[in-house]
Amino acid sequence: PGMAGIRLCLGWSTIATMILTQLTNGVAIGARKGLQWPSDRLRTTYSSCHVLPWRLTRAAFKNFVSYASRKDKSKTPSLHRLPRLFVEKNLSIGDYINFDSIQSNYLASVMRLKQGSYCLVFDGVNGEFQARIETADKRETTAVVERESRPPPVTPIGGPVLIFSPLKSKSRMQFLVEKATELGVGSLVPAKMRRTEVTKINVEKTRRHAVEAAEQCERLTVPIIHDMQDLSDILADWPPECPLFCCIERTTNEGLADEMLAHRDPTSKLSASFGLMVGPEGGYHDEERDTLMNHPAVISVSLGENILRAETAAIAGLSVMRMCGGVGDRKDGGG
């Protein structure tokens, strides 16, 4: 009814006009060639109609029909298709968000969102919200929080602590941080060991990689990124009642899964008190091995017979922990 009906009628009229035009052209061509009516001319007419751009006609018809029955664009699209961004502020319904320049460019230029479009935002504490774009510009985009899409996590940070030796390769270091975030790690603690080739890390850049991974994998939290510390300081501050599973190569220790299930508290659904440590490229120094074996919280474990690269060992260890229930699930915000 109304304008939609008029547009639909116009669409049918356009299609009919195109078909009649083709028929008329076919008859005219047959007349110019002196063909007999009706058989020869009809054959020519059919040949002319055969070149009718039927796909284009059908597409035009579908466009008119879909336009007539199109749903209101103001309705919210499916949540899993919306862009998702982390915001550095405590969010609640009704809040206004001023995205930074990088996020604004992503929303306005890359995703091409307009005023009235929707996106998802989370702050790592209060859950996930659906926000409506108020102004869309690649330099400054604003939005208003309309409703909650997922409740806050049970704990602010769910998941184990990963202690690792920073990698010299930037791409491999980024890969480790991203995959550890996706697997639900709670904290990343870079450790300076005897064979560590890196003297310092860029905490801000490392956190950006973790934020991007959290946005992509739909985590409700972002892991804590610590500054680089000496291994001795980390062990001195580690609570003796919290198990620290240390992956040591070339040992006859039990597997990580067996040890973790044996030491896991059956009354606890979370394991933020668990820790996983992987050594540097080249392995632990003999003195470091002795220090680790004498620490009351350290449990020496094996990841198999093969010698794994540092980032592979971290991902394998976190994957085993996830399978054993030692990494926070979606409702806990860990992944």
From TrEMBL:
Domain spans labelled Ribosomal RNA small subunit methyltransferase E methyltransferase: 162-321
Q: What class of enzyme is it?
A: transferase
Show the Gene3D superfamilies listed in the entry: 3.40.1280.10, Hypothetical PUA domain-like, domain 1 (2.40.240.20)
What coarse category fits the chief subcellular location reported for this protein?
Answer: cytoplasm
So which domain of life are we looking at?
Eukaryota
- What reaction gets catalysed by this protein? uridine(1498) in 16S rRNA + S-adenosyl-L-methionine = N(3)-methyluridine(1498) in 16S rRNA + S-adenosyl-L-homocysteine + H(+)
Cleavable signal peptide? 1-26
Identify a single GO molecular function assigned to this protein.
rRNA (uridine-N3-)-methyltransferase activity
Q: Pfam families, from UniProt?
A: Methyltrans_RNA, PUA_4
Residues forming the Ribosomal RNA small subunit methyltransferase E PUA-like domain are: 103-145
Subcellular compartments = Cytoplasm
Supply the EC number(s). Answer: 2.1.1.193
The protein's matches in InterPro entries, at most eight in alphabetical order, are given as: Alpha/beta_knot_MTases, PUA-like_sf, RsmE, RsmE_MTase_dom, RsmE_PUA-like, tRNA_m1G_MTases_N
Give me the Gene Ontology terms describing cellular component.
Answer: cytoplasm
- Homology family: Belongs to the RNA methyltransferase RsmE family.
* Described function: Specifically methylates the N3 position of the uracil ring of uridine 1498 (m3U1498) in 16S rRNA. Acts on the fully assembled 30S ribosomal subunit.
NCBIfam families reported for this sequence? PRK11713.3-5, RsmE family RNA methyltransferase
Q: What is this protein called?
A: 16S rRNA (uracil(1498)-N(3))-methyltransferase
